[in-house]
TrEMBL record:
Chain segments annotated as transmembrane: 263-285, 305-326, 347-368, 374-391, 431-456
GO cellular component terms, semicolon-separated: membrane
UniProt protein name: Cytochrome b561 domain-containing protein
DOMON domain: residues covered: 47-174
Compartments where located: Membrane
PANTHER family: CYTOCHROME B561 AND DOMON DOMAIN-CONTAINING PROTEIN, OS01G0895300 PROTEIN
Keywords: Electron transport, Membrane, Signal, Transmembrane, Transmembrane helix, Transport
SMART domains, sorted: B561 (SM00665)
Main location (coarse class): membrane
Family annotation (InterPro entries): Cyt_b561/ferric_Rdtase_TM (IPR006593), DOMON_domain (IPR005018)
Signal peptide span: 1-21
Length: 458
């Protein structure tokens, strides 16, 4: 009888412990900020990932992690505090469960794609993070802990994060052989077990200023894509293929091709500069590219290389309008130096920017459907040699026609030869304009769809 009563008491205690250690949505936006990864899942009751945070008067922040539909052997849940949208070089706090379901909370750091525990004793760790509640079932994992908002300088030197800053939150879970140390999580980007990156940075120490679903429109990325993929190619194609068109029409004393070239370039520079400033503003004016104090793995990561190549391409781009303003007269003997340097720097900045875009398409989690972004960009790259090929084909037909007319001109008056050449030139010129316009239109369409793929991730 006593054994039966004891068993019932144990079951009742276990039941209430289990229920109390689940995520409580009723406090969301009342006493804590809640982020539901799937839109509307809190109403449907099918949320797979939830994170919440709130501050306490003693300068600690309470964080909750709830991951649903996990594998039975999942035994850790983690949150990373990243300064950029890539994994690497950020502080991590994770809850781990031992084989006997004993729970603990631990501090570590991502070094590239590896995770390394901080060089702190258990007593020191307890000064900065404390486990409050934790539950581990066959298909879910819940963890509630509190962490000091502003650790001392000694702790910050070993990468205990200052939580009174803006971070991108990286949410991950997985299986670890030792619950104190995180093992590698899923590396399949299409798997639901792959780490999730919140699209907007948050400050967990200021939850009352964060909306229920923080959204930061990816305007910086969209402006970059519009500038480098549409406006700059349009400017280059106008300067390269439309110089001989409309020779008698000179609005404001300048040929039409020059107006197109200058206007699209200036629009591109404005778009790119706004994009760069918004990137630095979003990262609190911190440089996230290669640096002396970072590991070689971090400096050679796709994000670091993207930052460096992008910075160089923007720097070269800004030289172009300055050089154009200081260019010498057309009749000057140094004009040829300006022409070649202007072309070289223009193509250099364009090629560097395309390299940076390739890295973002392949490695960055900023696309709703990554394979669609890759496919669109491949089509975009194919369009460039197609444009060059068709223009060369048109020019070769033009040269062949002119040679035939000159040969036939032995039996005709010179006036008739000139008229025949002019008619053919008009046709080929129109065809060239149509090809350039078609190229710009298709590129604009590709750019629009890629921008939509970015917006869809918000």
């Amino acid at each position: 009888m006593d054994a039966t009563v004891s068993s019932v008491i144990v079951l009742i205690v276990a039941f209430f412990t289990f229920c109390s250690s689940q995520f409580d949505m009723s406090d969301c936006l009342k006493n804590k900020a809640c982020i539901f990864i799937s839109e509307g899942c809190e109403v449907k009751g099918n949320c797979e990932k939830i994170v919440s945070y709130t501050t306490e008067p003693d300068r600690w922040v309470v964080i909750e992690l709830f991951y649903n539909t996990t594998h039975p052997d999942t035994n850790y849940a983690a949150v990373g505090f990243s300064e950029d949208v890539l994994m690497g070089d950020e502080a991590v706090t994770h809850c781990g469960f031992s084989e006997t379901n004993q729970a603990g909370v631990f501090l570590s750091q991502n070094d590239g794609k590896s995770n390394v525990p901080l060089n702190l004793t258990a007593e020191h760790v307890a000064k900065y993070v404390e486990l409050l509640e934790a539950t581990h079932t066959s298909n879910s994992i819940y963890c509630k802990f509190r962490q000091k908002i502003t650790p001392d300088e000694t702790a910050q030197k070993v990468v205990v994060p200052n939580l009174n800053r803006t971070y991108y939150l990286l949410l991950a879970y997985g299986t670890a052989s030792k619950y104190e140390v995180m093992d590698t999580h899923s590396l399949d980007t299409h798997s639901k077990d792959f780490p999730f990156l919140l699209s907007a940075p948050v400050n967990v120490a200021m939850w009352e200023k964060v909306p229920e679903a923080p959204v930061k429109p990816p305007s910086n990325r969209i402006l970059m894509v519009v500038g480098w993929m549409w406006l700059i190619p349009s400017a280059i194609s106008a300067a390269r293929y439309l110089r001989e068109h409309w020779p008698d029409k000179k609005p404001f004393g300048l040929k039409i091709w020059f107006h197109i070239h200058r206007a699209t370039n200036y629009l591109a520079i404005i778009a790119v500069c706004i994009g760069v400033l918004s990137v630095f503003f979003g990262k609190q004016w911190r440089w996230t590219g290669p640096a002396i104090n970072k590991t070689s793995e971090r400096n050679l990561s796709p994000g670091a290389i993207h930052s460096m190549i992008g910075a160089v391409s923007v720097g070269v781009l800004l030289i172009q309008p300055v050089g154009a303003l200081l260019r010498c007269d057309v009749a000057s003997r140094y004009r040829v130096l300006f022409n070649w340097s202007h072309r070289f720097l223009g193509f250099l900045s364009f090629l560097l920017a395309q390299t940076a875009i390739i890295l973002s398409v392949i490695f960055f989690h900023v696309w709703m459907v990554r394979w669609a972004a890759i496919l669109l960009y491949v089509v975009y790259l194919i369009l460039i040699p197609l444009l060059i090929f068709h223009i060369k084909k048109i020019n070769s037909l033009k040269e062949h026609r002119n040679a035939s007319v000159s040969y036939a001109g032995r039996n005709y008056h010179q006036e008739q030869i000139v008229i025949t050449k002019t008619k053919h030139d008009v046709k080929t010129n129109r065809l060239t304009v149509l090809v350039v316009l078609a190229f710009s239109a298709v590129v604009a369409l590709i750019t629009t769809v890629m921008a939509a793929l970015m917006l869809a991730t918000v």
